[in-house]
Specification:
The protein is mainly α. The protein contains 19 helices and no strands. It has one domain. The protein is globular and about 70 Å long. The termini are far apart. About 4% of the residues have low confidence.
């Protein structure tokens, strides 16, 4: 019990330390606190130092930190400013969705002879995963009654390939995209906004924190807890298969509504506190990945998923170029579909652009909603085209 509590302290304290170091050292800041948390998590998680019951702690922390982070991040949003980019967000979502379907169909027919009798089920699961996320992958696998061995192979391979891609998204991909796609045009904000909260000035660190900021920030955290409780409570009233979608929808809605109240929106450092919870999430998630086990799982499926994501990325970039979608909106939209909404603020932090968070979140939630329908429909379409 004591050992477990020490690991909880580690998961909470390490991101705070990393944030402080990044704020003091420009080299670490250029790498990014989130990338550092991912690397630390991978090292610690594969060093064999965790107690046997750590998985329960990791699952619980993952379940808690993102629903707490989202309202805090939304509190600093100006929805009226976001509405000015709704058309671009809709274009980006359509381009991302189309690219996933095109890449999935092409790559599936190439790999189908090597995937076995359940290959069409895997294709459907991955469509669900890359339009909504892991909840859709699990739901589709259950609905299609895929074997446990095939499910584990797909999920483990997705974690491995997706993890590598995500590290690239957090490091070199933004730089490449900004050379290929148009740059993001910052939205104007109302003149009476506090200078420290200007949307065109991203500051992930608690610089300039004042003693008088503490009570308002604690109040915002308390409000985030209430929103989390409402969303979590409502999710218990619906079928388990859609409970996570319901919770995220409610938490997002309440967080956005709260941001429309100037007194809440003008509380200093709410975004920074939410960003801290994102680092906790990054550390905990990466600590759950067993690198050796994942690398040894179904090499053909790993190659299949890697090829699919690479082609989807290339097609999406081409479509965004043709549709004149900016690099930041392009990247957060693809992140929302491939990794699910909770990862959007993580990428926005790397981009140093929180204006695109709302676009990415809404795209991801839309993908979450349609993911199960799209995945199951795609699976049966692939089976039909193969003559199954």
């Amino acid at each position: 019990m004591v050992t477990t509590m020490l690991w909880v302290v580690f998961f909470l304290a390490c991101p705070a330390l990393i944030l402080r170091l990044c704020a003091k050292h420009s080299f670490l800041d250029s790498i990014g606190g989130i990338v550092i948390c991912y690397v630390v998590g991978l090292i610690v998680g594969n060093a064999g130092v965790f107690p046997d019951n750590i998985a329960d702690v990791q699952d619980t922390m993952n379940m808690l930190v993102i629903p707490l982070a989202l309202p805090l991040i939304f509190f600093s949003m100006d929805l009226r400013a976001w509405s000015k980019q709704a058309f671009t967000a809709a274009k980006a979502f359509t381009a991302a969705l189309v690219s996933v379907f095109i890449a999935s169909a092409i790559v599936f027919f190439f790999f189908a002879p090597h995937l076995g009798a359940e290959g069409w089920k895997m294709a459907g699961m991955l469509i669900g995963c890359y339009t909504g996320g892991t909840p859709n992958l699990a739901a589709i696998g259950t609905g299609l009654e895929i074997s446990s061995s095939s499910y584990i192979a797909v999920h483990a391979s997705d974690v491995l390939v997706g993890g590598v891609l995500f590290l690239l998204i957090l490091s070199i991909i933004p730089r490449i995209l900004k050379k290929v796609l148009p740059r993001y045009l910052q939205l104007s904000v109302s003149a009476n906004e506090n200078n420290a909260r200007q949307l065109d000035h991203f500051e992930p660190y608690f610089r300039g924190f004042r003693r008088k900021d503490l009570l308002p920030l604690l109040a915002s955290f308390g409000l985030s807890l209430i929103i989390f409780a409402v969303g979590g409570g409502a999710s218990l009233l619906v079928p388990e298969g859609i409970s996570s979608v319901v919770a995220i929808l409610i938490i997002t809605t309440l967080g956005v509504l709260a941001s429309m109240i100037p007194k809440i929106r003008n509380i200093r450092m709410t975004f920074q506190l939410g960003h801290y919870f994102l680092l906790v999430f990054a550390l905990v998630v990466s600590s759950m990945a067993n690198i050796r086990e994942l690398i040894g799982t179904a090499p053909m499926i790993i190659l299949y998923i890697a090829s699919m994501l690479l082609l989807a990325f290339l097609v999406h970039t081409l479509l965004s170029k043709l549709m004149k979608i900016d690099a930041d909106t392009h990247l957060v939209t693809m992140t929302a579909l491939v990794y699910s909404p909770p990862f959007v603020p993580v990428v926005a932090a790397v981009l140093k652009n929180k204006q695109v968070i709302m676009s990415g979140m809404l795209a991801g939630i839309a993908g979450w909603i349609i993911g199960n329908y799209a995945g199951i429909g795609f699976a049966y379409l692939m089976r039909g085209l193969l003559g199954g």
